[in-house]
Design goal:
The chain is α+β, with helices and mostly antiparallel strands and 140 residues long. The protein is 31% helix and 36% strand. It starts with a strand and ends with a strand. This is OsmC family protein.
Amino acid sequence: MECTIHWLPGSGMGMVAETGSGHLLTMDGAPDGGGRNLAPRPMETLLAGAGGCTAYDVVLILKRGRHAVSGCELKMSAERAETDPKVFTKIHLHFVVKGKALPETAVARAIALSHEKYCSATIMLGKTAEVTTSHEIVEG
């Protein structure tokens, strides 16, 4: 996996990441850190990437189990250390999974499998942060 970060001179602290798959992702810093608040912070991007990784797992596991999943929303909250390097110390993942007659046990198992085995991003972040999960199922 590769990624190249380009600082955008004249933008304050604006940066563009070019991923190995050829996609662009813009990031910026807070105004008090030289940024102009024009894009997500790098740590927000890290959190969003971890959320995308685990939500992807949950949907894929449910689909492979032939469950009628039709939606997945992941609400994330995180706390960071007060002092540098200000790592994540707590991350909570709340899954809202939508589908037709989704078994509670299947949803719980998909989340557990992602959390414990498949999601490299949340497993890696779990080395510094307490990662917790919860979920709800919406019929539809």
